[in-house]
Amino acid sequence: MNPRSIWLGKKPSLKTTLAVLTLSTFSSSLFAAPLNKADIKFIGPIAADMQLKPYQTEHQDAIINNLLPSLQQPKKSITVFGEKLKWQSFDSVNALTLGGLQALKLTASAERFTQGTLTIKGIEKAQLFINSEKQTPTKDVYELALSQGDHQIVIIAEQVANWNDVEFDFTAKTDTHTLTFSSKEQHGLSAKQLFDAPTVSALSLSPDAKQHLVSTRHYQDSTGNTANTVTELKDDDNRTIYRFESGQPSNVIWSPDNNYIVYLLEGKLKQLNRKTLSLRVIAENLDGAGGFSYFDNTSLIFNWSKSPTADSSLTKHYKGLQDRWSYARITSQVYLLDINTGLSKILSQGPLSHSIEDFNSKRGTVLLSRGTQPMLATTHPTTELIELNIANGKSEVIGLFNIFNQAKYSNNDIYVTAGPDFKDGLGRNLPEDMLSNNYDGQLYLLTDNGKKASALSRNFDPAISQLEVLNNGDAIVKVTDQDTIALYLYDKSKQRFNKLKTGFDVVEQFSYSNNRSPAILVSGSNASSPQQLKQLSINKNKAKTLWDSKPEGYANTDIASLDEFNFTNAEGVEIKGRVYLPTDLDKNKQYPALVYYYGGTSPVTRGFTGRYPFNLWAEHGYVVYVVQPTGATGFGQEFSAKHVNAWGQYTADDIMQGTQALLKQYPFIDKNRLGNLGASYGGFMTMLLATKTDMFSASIAHAGISNITSYWGQGWWGYLYSGEASKNSYPWNNATLYSDHSPVFHADKVTTPLLLLHGDSDTNVPVGESHNMYTALKLLGKDVDLIEYKGADHQIFARDQRFDWWSTKLAYFDQHLKNEPQWWQYLYPKK
């Protein structure tokens, strides 16, 4: 078993168990710490009349594990078989023996990574849990390894001869390993909460807004990397009408007449009657089918893909640049399915894949998009938008576009989302000498069957990423608005954008109704508050909360406070940022700080959690500065355009200037204990900064780019991304950009300790990018470490790997910024 970090939720082996306390007697050890009985809560007897204890049955573990969650709750009492039992202080217990079961509960708080041994005497039969994880002793002794933070200890006792003889003794490994014990229920934010807490994984609102489907997902130790998901059908009062118990539905759609729900489940397309809750199977054997929508009340429109026959040849002859993609040779066509009989008929055909953009059942037309050539070798693949008449099978070309994202009908017109260069730069709002960043999404309107086009968002700074259209022709757009993700309503008649008041910093998912009084079902979070589910009335622009994850996942939890911190860079441009402060901050002390950034073409948004848990880092005693350097979308076209052909030129200056401004604003930050980190383009920035400055004491780059040329040529989408980041620049016409901006070409300038992290199966930024830098720095005798995650792609998703990944980063910074190498040495011992 991997001895990484029990605090993050792994099943422990002997050497990874944790807990620390001393009770009743004092150890003779130099590093023993006494614990007052008043710091322990006691409850019992639980089910005093049980004839056999759990250990005397064949189901001991199941019985104990099912009881455990009730004991872990921050409640004053529990009710067992109708008897109410109250938690009391352990120092009030003077019984010799008690029937049934008994439980002890307390909190152990570590100011730093702590190791030691726990000895329990006087309890013949007991199970000990730390943060829900069962601990395994050798005889009465537990080997402990506890990270910084608060940890809940629960002991369930089955057999005790004399409670007066019960003794707990903790011996610390060294004098630096200390713990504080208490009976408090309030605790610091933990990694397990951030990953395991329930979240909305899918949602869908009925057309009449009277019902909605919502899927919630959570994780737990017993199921490991497998999520526990529940999908429920609820009414407009949020009462559950129907629950999916076996399997979880996908591709949920509602009939226009509001009578049915159709979804995919276990390979079958099923129809649920909203009134009677009766079920029937419409069709099956639909491998490769998806994107189902009701075309009308009697038929469904969808895409059906077909993978090529497995290739058993000894070689692969590449057909084009896209052929590196595992899915490049899959073709997809559009079909119409009759709900009554299950019969499907094809609507599109040919060697090119077709995607459904939108449809109009009254007119009998479908908007389709397709690439003009398979495997086209260009940084901006051309998209053809066509309108298909289902009745006669004829299609009309609406337009041929080098820049294109999405298209939707708006009555007789067509909305399009695309970058500023759409239609020969129709959406540009830039000085003539600047190149557009086409990741900065804009909104357009095509009229007269595409013959005319107008730019709707040229003076609208947020970047548009998703488009939905209401019956009246107005549009709902999801946008990047500085460091937030927001929803706006585009009023077509008044030609203006109005922000919808969701109450979220970051909108995650949304679904809308299309009745006379449209509503939106939306999930999201804020920088300092976890996910909620709300329903918003568009006409009133007012939201009500349907569900809140905080009581379920974050009760009695301390969450870092947040400051807004902006500064003006040397170019006179305001650079946004925010600062997470440790709980119980003492401004008279000096604190280490972490600086985080992305630096690519999007900002670091204000979600509560994610792959980079800023609130958790603050809980571990770091001041965390998140900076939004030049080049990101959401701040206007001129700001985002500076990403083009820059490769860190402006970004590095903003990060360094922002860090200096931070030190002036927050004098309790120790300038000699600064760390920095980023991933992907942010990993590139970490390596680049290491060649430009020595202001940081330790740096971490995850999946970073060290050589722009090799990323451009070897990453699956490297040449496409470079079509914007290195627009019109190639190794043969701008060698200076590709070499001078690549960190590996300046590795000799690095003086900061650097940790390189990478998934060994990364297809976006191949792992060789970290190998390049590791090889260079090793040959130069620099302080560098490389850690790969086996089987991981560009992001670390699996629960066990995510916890290990989080631990590794914190342990590395603890070693270099807190002079606490023990955690790192524990995770990565020298052989």
Description:
This is Prolyl oligopeptidase family serine peptidase. Residues 1-32 form the signal peptide. It holds the Pfam family Peptidase_S9. The protein is of the alpha+beta class. It is built from 14 helices and 52 strands. The strands form 13 sheets. Strands 43-46-48-47-49-50-51-52 form an eight-stranded mixed beta sheet, with helices on both faces. Strands 1, 4, 5, 7, 8, 10 and 12 form a seven-stranded antiparallel beta sheet that branches. A four-stranded antiparallel beta sheet has the order 14-15-16-17, with no helix packed on it. A hairpin with a 5-residue loop joins strand 44 and strand 45 (574-575). The longest helix is centred in the C-terminal third of the chain and has 19 residues, at 799-817. The relative contact order is 0.08. The model is unreliable at 1-30 (pLDDT under 50).
